[in-house]
């Protein structure tokens, strides 16, 4: 599920579109000149995986610069200063005091300018395929050829540019990215913006950068020469340079895992507040896609994984909306694990998750149990977690099963009916567990069929 599009207003009156995804310390991803679209960037699988990977440990704020994407299009003037205004507006609207910046190519000048003028706000600065002087990459032979192509054939230009971004081996993926590029900006605005960007030179600011800085570059990328990245890193006090093998321009293709790992290592470990996960007793929700192996065979591996990723994001959003905490560090195959402090909210979340799975064509097994959990490094452990998983496996597609413990906690507050499913033997659990099915209604179905109204 793509994050909601929101808007910020710059000090010179321009509306800037942005979205927020993930959770953790803030990371602002700056647009590469005109090339960003807050909504469509989630559609190519490569782009979605990249944004989700960044959002696993960070709150990622992405925005469209003026004149492009979903931001205000009727803009005549572009400069380093106006691009800084865009960043300032988004940061102010989101309410960020301190955050990391990730800047790609054309975003180098406004990112560096902001890092110097707002040093108290920038915790880390990351520069991907960047140069201090834009002319170093804009006057490269490949870019000059692309500029000539843009003036004569907009579609062919975007198709070619997409292959520069992804690598020429990614032909099928490049077609989707090219369509996104065409939606980002008009040819006329792109020309105006690049006329301005070509003049950018922030080399004099590099010694004044105080934020820890990481320069990232692919060795064979033709758009920005590796020498420019080396010069950039050498001119920023204490900066680190990491060179990856490959030629693709986008960070979300070609050894993406290594890029994400380098970012995570540079930004350091994330210490989640103790309140993120409850200590002691918790209500545990386990949701798992029904017969994912058969669905993979039916749909094909790639379509199934795309649908499963969309559903995973939707389930985590539902869990948060019901005051639950999805467990980020747990490897569950096609399942989602979450904890709650309220049995009522856990049941409401489980039912909403079931509806979401049905709507996506990926029905879910859903189970709830309550018990003590051990909290450790973003995960939860313990016998209660295992029981929740076993109860989930007993449920019919879309059905919510709960343990006797959860039923007892929620019987007067959940606004549903519980139907007794009897005591069940669970694999690996010594004693049988009585389970109940959650159904519509406001009462409690006791053994024998009598209904008692909730108090």
Description of the structure:
By secondary structure, this protein is α/β, with parallel strands linked by helices. It folds into two domains: 6-267, Alpha/Beta hydrolase fold, catalytic domain (Rossmann fold), CATH 3.40.50.1820; 275-453, Alpha-Beta Plaits (2-Layer Sandwich), CATH 3.30.70. Helices cover 39% and strands 23% of the residues. It has helices at 45-55, 80-94, 108-117, 135-138, 141-152, 154-166, 171-184, 187-197, 226-235, 256-267, 292-299, 301-321, 343-359, 383-394, 404-410; strands spanning 6-9, 15-22, 26-29, 59-63, 99-104, 122-128, 213-218, 240-244, 280-289, 325-326, 335-340, 364-376, 379-381, 400-403, 417-424, 433-439, 443-445, 451-453. Strands 1-2-4-3-5-6-7-8 form an eight-stranded mixed β-sheet, sandwiched between helices. Strands 9, 10, 11, 12, 13, 14, 15 and 16 form an eight-stranded mixed β-sheet that branches. The chain has a two-stranded antiparallel ribbon with strand order 17-18. The radius of gyration is 25 Å and the shape is elongated. The chain starts with 5 loop residues before the first strand and ends with a strand. Residues 272-278 and 442-455 have low confidence and may be disordered.
């Amino acid at each position: 599920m793509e994050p909601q599009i929101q808007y910020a207003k710059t000090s010179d009156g321009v509306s800037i579109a942005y979205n927020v995804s993930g959770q953790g310390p803030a990371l602002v991803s700056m647009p590469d000149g005109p090339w960003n679209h807050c909504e469509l960037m989630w559609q190519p699988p490569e782009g979605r995986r990249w944004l989700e990977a960044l959002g696993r440990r960070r709150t990622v704020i992405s925005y469209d610069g003026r004149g492009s994407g979903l931001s205000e299009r009727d803009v005549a003037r572009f400069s380093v200063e106006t691009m800084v205004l865009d960043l300032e507006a988004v940061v102010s609207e989101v309410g960020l005091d301190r955050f990391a910046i990730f800047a790609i190519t054309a975003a180098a000048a406004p990112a560096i300018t902001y890092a110097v003028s707002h040093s108290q706000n920038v915790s880390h600065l990351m520069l991907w395929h960047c140069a201090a002087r834009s002319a170093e990459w804009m006057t490269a032979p490949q870019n000059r050829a692309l500029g000539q192509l843009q003036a004569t054939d907009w579609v062919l230009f975007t198709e070619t540019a997409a292959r520069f971004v992804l690598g020429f081996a990614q032909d099928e993926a490049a077609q989707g990215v090219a369509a996104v590029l065409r939606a980002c900006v008009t040819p006329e605005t792109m020309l105006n913006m690049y006329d301005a960007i070509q003049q950018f030179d922030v080399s004099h600011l590099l010694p004044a950068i105080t934020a820890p800085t990481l320069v990232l570059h692919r060795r064979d990328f033709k758009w920005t020469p590796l020498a420019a990245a080396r010069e950039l890193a050498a001119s920023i006090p204490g900066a680190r340079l990491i060179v990856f093998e490959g030629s693709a321009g986008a960070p979300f293709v070609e050894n993406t895992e290594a890029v994400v790992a380098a970012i995570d290592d540079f930004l350091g470990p994330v210490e989640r507040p103790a309140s993120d996960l409850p200590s002691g007793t918790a209500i545990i929700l386990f949701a798992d896609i029904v017969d994912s192996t058969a669905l993979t065979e039916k749909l094909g591996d790639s379509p199934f994984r795309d649908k499963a990723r969309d559903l995973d994001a939707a389930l985590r959003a539902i869990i948060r909306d019901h005051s639950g905490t999805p467990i980020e560090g747990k490897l569950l195959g096609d399942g989602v694990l979450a904890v709650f402090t309220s049995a009522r909210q856990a049941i409401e979340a489980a039912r909403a998750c079931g509806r979401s799975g049905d709507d996506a064509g990926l029905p879910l097994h859903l189970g709830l149990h309550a018990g003590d959990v051990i909290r450790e490094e973003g995960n939860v452990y313990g016998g209660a977690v295992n029981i929740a998983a076993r109860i989930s496996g007993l449920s019919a597609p879309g059905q919510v099963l709960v343990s006797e413990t959860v039923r007892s906690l929620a019987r007067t507050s959940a606004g549903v009916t519980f139907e007794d499913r009897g005591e069940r033997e669970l694999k690996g659990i010594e004693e049988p567990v009585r389970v109940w099915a959650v159904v519509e209604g406001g009462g409690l179905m006791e053994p024998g069929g009598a209904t008692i109204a909730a108090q």
